[in-house]
Amino acid sequence: MSKALSKAKGFKKSKSGTYLSIASTAFGAIGVAKQAKKARTEHDTLRLIDAAVSAAAIVTGLAILYRELRRLGDDDVLLG
């Protein structure tokens, strides 16, 4: 049981966990796009700035996750 528990704890550091993080972060981009579209139609500058900052955070997060995915390489926690 402890071996399975240690594998579950290492899921976040695995390729599968990283792919899941990338997908959930990219899914957040849909909400930001809707927010930006609504802000543009309402001419709300403050919401548009908020959407731009959120989009920058999503892009940065995806870049960090991509870098982590490349670093993982073949030493995946769940495979070994």
Explain what this protein looks like in three dimensions.
This protein is an all-alpha fold and 80 residues long. Helices cover 80% and strands 0% of the residues. It has three helices and no strands. Helix 2 packs antiparallel against helix 3. The chain crosses the membrane at residues 45-66. Keywords: Membrane, Transmembrane, Transmembrane helix.
Which key features would you list for this structure?
single chain, 80 residues, mainly alpha, 3 helices, transmembrane helix, membrane, transmembrane
What's the short version?
This protein has 80 residues and is mainly alpha-helical.
What topology does this entry show?
Elements (H helix, E strand, L loop, with lengths): L1 H8 L5 H28 L2 H28 L8
Radius of gyration using CA atoms only? 17 Å
Q: Describe the biggest sheet? A: none
Beta-strand content: under 5%
Strand/helix succession: HHH
Q: What is the SS-derived class?
A: mainly alpha
Apparent shape: elongated
Mean pLDDT: 84
Strand element count: 0
What is the overall number of helices? 3
**Secondary structure: helix percent:** over 70%
Low-confidence stretches: none
> Roughly how many Å apart are the termini?
16 Å
Keywords: Membrane, Transmembrane, Transmembrane helix
